Amino acid sequence: MTKKTVNRVKPSNPISGRVAKRLGIAPKAPTKPKKTRSISKLKKDLDKHISLYVRQINAKDGKVKCYTCGRVMDWKQSQCGHFISRSYLATRFDLNNLRVQCVGCNVFGGGKPLDFEENLKEELGKKVVEEMKARRHKIMKFSPSWYEMQIIIYKDKLKDLTC
């Protein structure tokens, strides 16, 4: 049996690709169009910026007060609590639904929904709270461009705040 030889084409540039890149003589690969981020990543990013906004807008001298228990803490230790769960997209980013909470109330206390609702009714009025509760079931679907625009808006709002 004889061994077959394969005709291999030698590259016109005898320098390997890695070395050519280091020397800056390698041809540049065509650039791919920028991919848009997934809805879940955009949603997460918007959550982050709104959380920062809600906590900083309520800060006085870097301190905030928990909406449900009244504990005073540094704004960086606080959390952005939702009266109506984040799973309801119709109210997820509604500033009337968002308040500063301590980790004890927001996480370990499950958000303390009864205290939260009672305080919201005192602050906003029963009608506003009931309308928000009814609106939570509205089916919403936001486009990637809507999320991107909201992120830009909240980034700009955060630049104006000083904490």
Break the fold down into its secondary structure elements and pairings.
Elements: H1 17-23, H2 39-57, E1 63-65, E2 72-74, E3 79-82, H3 89-92, E4 98-101, H4 103-108, H5 113-124, H6 126-135, H7 144-160
Antiparallel strand pairs: 1-2, 3-4
Helix pairs in contact: 2-7, 5-6
Low-confidence stretches: none
Tell me the radius of gyration. Answer: 26 Å
Q: Which structural class best describes the helix and strand composition?
A: mainly alpha
Q: Provide the β-strand percentage band.
A: 5-15%
Task: List SSEs in N-to-C order.
Answer: HHEEEHEHHHH
Mean pLDDT: 87
What order do the strands of the largest sheet run in, or round the barrel if closed?
1-2
Strand segment tally: 4
Describe the structure.
- This protein has helices at residues 17-23, 39-57, 89-92, 103-108, 113-124, 126-135, 144-160, and strands at residues 63-65, 72-74, 79-82, 98-101.
- With 163 residues, the chain is mainly alpha-helical.
- The strands form two sheets. It has a two-stranded antiparallel ribbon. A two-stranded antiparallel sheet has the order 3-4.
- The protein is elongated and about 85 Å long.
- The model has no long low-confidence stretch (mean pLDDT 87).
